[in-house]
C-alpha cells in the first residue's frame, strides 16, 4: 500500500544518517503524532492516541534533515505512506513508514530560520548537468556556486567523497560551506 500523507508531530529520536550500498544518502527518525481534543467536562485539552511513524529521507533531503532536525522538535512531514508487516517467532509486527518528500518545522510551536542550499540536487532535475541552479531573484548565488565548485568533481553518486554543500545566507547573501562532520556552517557567527 502506498498513499500520500501529511503528518504533524514531534521528533522522537535523533535522526540517523547513513548511505545505501548504491551511494545514496539517507536519514531517518521516529515521529510521534498525538491526537488532541478539548474535553469540556475537564475544561482542558487532553491527549488521545499516539501514532508512530518511521520517517525516511533520501539524497539532499537526508542531508538537510541531518543539519536541521533534532529530537523533541515539532515538524510537519509530507510523503508516501508504506505499511509493512512481518512475522518473527510467531508474532506479527507492523510498522508505518513515510518516504518523505518534504520535512519542515511546525511554526505553530516556534520559529525557524531557513537557509537555502545552493548546490544542484535532485530538485534541479529540469536543469542540464553542470548548469548553475536557477535563482530568479538574482544571479549572485549562481556565480558564487560556480566559483565554489571549481576543482571539485560532480559527485552525482552521492557517496560524499570530496563533496560539499554550500548554503546562501538569506540575510547577508554570502555563500557559507557546510561542515560534513558536524553539520554546522563553517565560519557562521550564529
Helix-strand string: EEEEHEEEHEE
Mean pLDDT: 74
List the total number of helices.
2
Number of strands: 9
What is the general shape?
Answer: flat
Largest sheet: 5 strands, mixed, barrel
CA-CA gap between termini: 43 Å
Query: What topology, given as strand order, has the largest sheet?
Result: 1-3-4-6-5
Share of helix among residues? Answer: 10-25%
The fraction of residues assigned to DSSP E strands is: 35-45%
What low-confidence regions span 5 or more consecutive residues with pLDDT below 50?
A: 123-162
Given helix and strand content, the structural type is mainly beta
Radius of gyration: 20 Å
Essential attributes:
11% helix; 9 strands; 190 residues; single chain; three-stranded antiparallel beta sheet; five-stranded mixed beta barrel; mainly beta
Report on this model:
Helix content is 11%, strand content 43%. A five-stranded mixed β-barrel has the order 1-3-4-6-5. The longest helix is centred in the middle third of the chain and has 10 residues. It is flat, with a radius of gyration of 20 Å. About 21% of the residues have low confidence.
Amino acid at each position: 500500500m502506498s498513499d500520500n500523507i501529511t503528518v504533524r508531530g514531534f521528533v522522537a529520536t535523533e535522526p540517523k544518517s547513513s548511505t545505501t550500498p548504491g551511494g545514496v544518502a539517507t536519514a531517518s527518525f521516529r515521529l510521534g503524532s498525538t491526537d488532541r481534543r478539548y474535553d469540556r467536562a475537564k475544561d482542558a485539552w487532553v491527549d488521545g492516541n499516539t501514532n508512530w511513524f518511521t520517517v525516511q529521507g533520501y539524497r539532499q533531503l537526508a542531508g538537510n534533515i541531518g543539519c536541521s532536525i533534532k529530537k523533541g522538535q515539532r515538524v510537519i512531514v509530507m510523503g508516501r505512506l508504506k505499511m509493512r508487516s512481518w512475522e518473527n517467532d510467531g508474532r506479527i509486527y507492523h510498522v508505518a513508514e513515510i518516504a518523505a518528500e518534504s520535512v519542515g518545522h511546525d511554526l505553530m510551536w516556534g520559529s525557524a530560520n531557513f537557509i537555502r542550499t545552493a548546490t544542484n540536487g535532485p530538485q534541479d532535475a529540469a536543469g542540464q548537468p553542470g548548469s548553475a541552479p536557477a535563482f530568479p531573484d538574482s544571479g549572485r548565488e549562481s556565480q558564487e556556486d560556480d566559483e565554489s565548485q571549481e576543482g571539485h568533481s560532480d559527485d552525482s553518486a552521492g557517496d560524499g567523497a570530496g563533496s560539499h554543500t554550500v548554503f546562501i545566507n538569506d540575510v547577508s547573501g554570502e555563500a557559507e560551506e557546510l561542515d560534513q562532520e558536524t553539520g554546522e556552517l563553517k565560519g557562521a557567527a550564529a
